[in-house]
Design goal:
Number of helices: 5
Radius of gyration: 15 Å
Largest sheet: 4 strands, parallel
Helix content: 25-40%
Distance between the termini: 10 Å
Structural class: alpha/beta
Order of helices and strands: EHEHHEHEH
Number of strands: 4
């Protein structure tokens, strides 16, 4: 059986925003001053989950240029977003991510998820899913990692 996929957004989960007094982890990377907010300890924690990590972000290939090195991760596959209409009531990433996953279980970590996205995934995806919303002011926390690990433990 294939490892579950973990679709990972950057802005919000890895780069907190919307509040004040963010910790920084090293200098600014390239032209993006927000990259200093990326906690390098998240890389080993994400890798330890045992999922196939995939960038699901508008950063596209820039995630491999800026974010992966700060996390100590190799280049990851990148979801290329199709042109088209936003499905009514769903996040614009929901259907493309389910299509990318095909029949594999997946986790999607993002700060813009809604109950509609979760309900659609439960009703339309043939494998287990966890659509996990992260507080964009805090980014990924220990509690978020615990939820991801618990789902992976219970899913298998």
């Amino acid at each position: 059986m294939s490892r579950p996929l973990l679709f990972l957004d950057v802005d919000g989960p890895l780069i907190p925003f919307g509040g004040t007094n963010y910790p920084t982890y090293g200098g600014i990377s390239g032209a993006n001053p927000l990259a200093a907010r990326i906690n390098p300890a998240h890389g080993p924690r994400l890798a330890a989950l045992g999922c196939e990590l995939v960038w699901a972000t508008t950063w596209m290939s820039e995630a491999n240029e800026v974010v992966s090195p700060r996390l100590g991760l190799p280049d990851l596959p990148v979801v290329v977003w199709p042109d088209g209409e936003d499905p009514e009531g769903l996040h614009w990433k929901t259907i493309p991510l389910a299509q990318w996953a095909a029949d594999r279980p997946f986790i999607w970590v993002d700060d813009e998820l809604t109950a509609n996205d979760r309900a659609w995934a439960r009703a339309n995806h043939p494998a287990p899913t966890l659509l996990h919303k992260v507080d964009p002011v805090r980014g990924l926390t220990d509690a978020d990692f615990a939820i991801l690990q618990q789902w992976l433990t219970n899913k298998t």
